[in-house]
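Give me the fold.
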Amino acid sequence: MNAILMRTGLALCLVPGVLFGLSLLLEHHAWLWDATVYRCAIDATLAHDDPYRFVGDCAGYFLPHTYPYAGTRLLAGLATMTGTPLLGYAYVLAYAAGSALFLYAAGRIGGSTRAVALLVLAPAAGVFVSELVSGNMGVPFYGALLWLIWRGAGGRPVTALGVAMAPFKPLYAAYLLLPFFQRREILLPFAGALAVAAWYGGDALLFPVHFADWLRAATGHANEVPGFGFSMLVRKSGMELQGGTAIVAAYALWAAFAVVLTLRAVARAPTPLLRALVAVAGTALLLPRLKEYDCLMLIPLALALWPTLDARERREWLALVGGFGIALPATIWWLRKLALVWGTAPATWRSLVDMRWLVQNQGAFLFAALLAALVWLAFRSRDAAQPA
């Protein structure tokens, strides 16, 4: 009976994820939408226009360009040598390869492609279905990062990946801290930070107008679409992400909490693979503007951790992390469908999917699951020196 109930509960949790994914991919055609933003920005840069004011000038696209001018200028330079279409094909290939690396490495870690498929569909009502085809550079980055971790690569390849990614996604420079979290190594993160600082310092000196435009566009977008994590806490407080003493002090406290929590959780992880995955999860908490795809590492973390847990710990993990990331959003989604059952709302495809509610809340559930995972790992009752 318990097995039947578990399977039924899992199926009910997967339904909103499947419907959400189908709605985004089939109805809204959410394929590589962030790549379209970059294409518009590259076209504007090649035409010597401002890449941060192309909205309405590029097929009426609805997303602003908020990525740094450093990466935009680099890609525009590549486009002049290869042509924009060839550069686009190269990006699609790199994106597909990064996504495949993530799914492949996660499958090898968990030993089951079925488990990976279930976890991709289930967290926060299937948001990963859309994130894996969104076109955001974070997805191939996490694919490459997970593949390096699974292969047991040292700190140098991981640091090189972080430095290479920073011109396009500056927040991902935080992942230069991975050698410090794993082995208390200072030199590699310091060298990586110097390289990233030199890149942005040179960009600010050589292209001050575009650099200022980027900061203005990124800050405005962060306030309008603040994401989750620290930025969500700032939004709830009524403040804006405009800098200032209060924001800096608040982030310093949050960062100190995240660093201490991560160091404690890493120290209590029983295997090198788990220590690396826990370090990645803790680094994600440092990102001021956490997004849904930044929680992708919850999947390999759960798969690698599960065999090391005893029966009691598995129940705790499912109740806490699975509750926030899977069961709670699915339960609320089903409760919102009661209006369809009672006939007080029209039984249409749109009312069934309820996409707006999912989009507005999916990241908060994933953030809660990520934070719960780190807290549980840091304060689990078992002796950290004794693997299961």
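The mean pLDDT is 83.
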